[in-house]
Backbone:
């Protein structure tokens, strides 16, 4: 037969085990929540970096296209490396300080090309959904409501300097 003291000691071990199990579950939930929060913070930081780097590429492509002297004005680059050292010049003509990687994937950007195969912009290769959905500058209005970062295309679109001339109505036409 067991004594009353032995029975009480066994009950305490069961309670202690139950408390340890509950603490492990609570700790696991806390670590899971912290992990998802950290992932969110990291994605938001990468999103800001993506926007900054993408804009740097758009501005560099604009600078390359709008070069005022030398030959090849009004052309887009054939490769991104041309933004660091413009082959149209003998000296070092830079349009961007360095080639940045895509902060969302850590890899090269996906280049956006025109019909002639020249680079007009870059975009991310990430299919993650952006946190930022609105409040973009006017040149990036197309980003609003985007389903993924790969929809954010940092493209330079030159404005046409030539405006269409309005035809004057011939005498006897119109009002």
Residues:
């Amino acid at each position: 037969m067991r004594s009353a003291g032995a029975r009480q000691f066994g009950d305490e071990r069961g309670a202690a085990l139950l408390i340890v199990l509950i603490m492990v579950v609570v700790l696991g939930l806390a670590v899971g929540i912290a992990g998802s929060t950290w992932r969110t913070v990291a994605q938001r930081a990468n999103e800001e970096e993506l926007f900054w780097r993408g804009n740097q590429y758009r501005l560099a492509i604009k600078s390359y296209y709008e070069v005022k002297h030398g030959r090849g004005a009004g052309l887009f680059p054939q490769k991104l490396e041309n933004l660091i050292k413009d082959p149209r010049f003998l000296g070092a003509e830079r349009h961007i300080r360095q080639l940045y990687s895509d902060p969302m994937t850590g890899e090269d950007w996906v280049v956006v090309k025109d019909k002639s195969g020249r680079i007009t912009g870059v975009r991310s290769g990430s299919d993650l959904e952006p946190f930022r959905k609105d409040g973009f500058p006017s040149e990036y209005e197309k980003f609003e409501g985007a389903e993924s970062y790969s929809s954010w295309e940092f493209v330079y679109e030159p404005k046409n300097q030539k405006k269409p001339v309005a035809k004057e109505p011939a005498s006897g036409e119109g009002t």
Notes: The radius of gyration is 30 Å. Residues 14 and 20 are 10 Å apart (CA to CA). The chain is about 35% helix and 5% strand. The chain has one domain: 4-155.
